[in-house]
Write a structure and sequence with these properties.
This protein is mainly α. 69% of the residues lie in helices and 0% in strands. Helix 1 packs antiparallel against helix 2, helix 1 packs across helix 3 and helix 2 crosses helix 3. The N and C termini lie far apart (48 Å). Its main location: membrane. Keywords: Cell membrane, Membrane, Transmembrane, Transmembrane helix. It is a multi-pass membrane protein. It is found in: Cell membrane.
Length: 71
């Protein structure tokens, strides 16, 4: 088998991980419930397009309160 045949599985895994990170970020943001639902639905239904649109137009800086240091 040619090594390029396995690249789809690897790229799919990368997209899945990035989508889960984006959905986790949306859920933990201070957006309204409707906005959280719509962004999550967009990312879930259109994984690559939704991810790109979220990172370009999601206003991440405005809606995320930042991460707290644990220790």
């Amino acid at each position: 088998m040619h090594p390029a045949t396995y690249s789809g599985g690897f790229l799919g895994l990368v997209v899945l991980i990035l989508d889960l990170i984006a959905i986790f970020e949306v859920i933990n943001s201070n957006r309204s419930v409707t906005a959280k639902f719509l962004w999550s639905l967009l990312i879930f239904l259109f994984p690559i397009l939704g991810l790109v649109l979220y990172f370009l137009f999601g206003g991440r800086e405005e809606h995320n309160s930042g991460y707290e240091v644990i220790a």
